[in-house]
Amino acid sequence: MNKRIGFIGCGQMGRAMIQGMIDAGLVKAEDIAATALSDETIDFVTDEYGIQISNDNKRLARESDLLFLAIKPYVYQGVIQEIKDEVRDDTVVVTIAAGITLDAMKEAFGRNVKVIRSMPNTPSLVGAGMSVLCPNDFVANQELAEVMEVFESFGEAEVVEEKLMDAVPSVSGSSPAFIYMLIEAMADTAVQQGFPREKAYKIVSQAVEGAAKMVKETGKHPGELKDAVCTPGGTTISGVTKLEEVGFRNAIIQGMTACTDRSKELSQGKK
Ligand SMILES: NC(=O)C1=CN([C@@H]2O[C@H](COP(=O)(O)OP(=O)(O)OC[C@H]3O[C@@H](n4cnc5c(N)ncnc54)[C@H](OP(=O)(O)O)[C@@H]3O)[C@@H](O)[C@H]2O)C=CC1
Ligand SMILES: O=C(O)[C@@H]1CCC=N1
C-alpha cells in the first residue's frame, strides 16, 4: 500500500493493528509512523516494532494519508485541538474509540474532515481481528476501500450504519475480554480437576477456537451444533442444564447490554 499510515497513540490497540498489518505484508515497518507520550513507549516501540515514533503529533498529522487516532476517548478533544489545523483535507482520519461519534469529530475539527469511525479488537495482533467501520459522508468509496484493506490485512472487517456503532464494542471491541473470562473460568475448573495450568489453557482455548470455526465454516445454527454435542443422558446435557439453571445466557446478555449502555453514555458525552 502506498499510503502514509500514521498512528497517534501506540498502546495496546495501536500496536496490535501495526503488528497485524506488518505481519500481513501490507506495509513495511519503516513506512508506518506513530506518536506516544512517554519516552518509555517511544523507546520500547522503536526497539520492538522498528517503526518511526516520536511525540510530534502535529508533524504526524501533516504527513499521514491515513491517520489513526489510537488514543483513549478522554484524550481525543485535546489531541484534536492540537492537530486540527495540520490534518489535510485529503487525509482520512480513523477513530477507534468507543463513543466518539462522527458528529463529535466534526464539532471537534470545526470543519468537514474525512472520518471513519471504527471499532477494532486486540486479536488483530495475531491476524484474527474483527473490526467494524462507519464512514462519514466525505469519505469516497475508494478511500473506504483502502481503509478496509488495512483492517482486512489483520482480520475481518464490516461496514455498518452509525446507529449500530454503540452496540459494536459488545460484539467486537470488548467481546474478547468476555471470551478470555470464559477461557479463564474453564481453565480454572480444569486445574481444580487436576489438569496442569498450561495444558488446561491449551485444551480450552483450542476448544473455543474450534467451536467458533464450526459456527463460521459450517454455517449451521449454534443451537444445532450444540444439540449435536449433547448425547441423550450424557455429560454435555448435564452441563447445559446446569448452565441454564444458573443463567449463563442471561449473564452474557446483561454483560453485553451494560457494555452497549456505557458506549451510549460515552457517545452522549458522559464521563
Ligand atoms: N484495548 C482494546 O482492546 C481496544 C481499544 N480500543 C480503543 O483504542 C484506544 C486506545 O486504547 P488502548 O490502546 O487500549 O490504550 P493504551 O493506553 O494502551 O494506549 C494509548 C496510547 O496513547 C498514547 N497517548 C496518550 N496521550 C497521547 C497524546 N496526547 N499524544 C499522543 N499519544 C498519546 C499513549 O502513550 P504512552 O504509551 O506514552 O502513555 C499510548 O501509547 C481507546 O480509545 C480504546 O477505546 C478499541 C478497541 C479495542
Ligand atoms: O473498554 C473500552 O472502552 C475499549 C473499547 C473496546 C475495548 N476497549
From TrEMBL:
Pathway: Amino-acid biosynthesis; L-proline biosynthesis; L-proline from L-glutamate 5-semialdehyde: step 1/1. NADPH binds at N57. It comes from the Bacteria. GO terms for cellular component: cytoplasm. Residues 4-99 form the Pyrroline-5-carboxylate reductase catalytic N-terminal domain. Its EC number is 1.5.1.2. InterPro entries: 6-PGluconate_DH-like_C_sf, NAD(P)-bd_dom_sf, P5C_Rdtase_cat_N, P5CR-like_CS, P5CR_dimer, Pyrroline-COOH_reductase. Keywords: Amino-acid biosynthesis, Cytoplasm, NADP, Oxidoreductase, Proline biosynthesis. NCBIfam families: proC (TIGR00112). This is Pyrroline-5-carboxylate reductase. It comes from Halobacillus dabanensis.
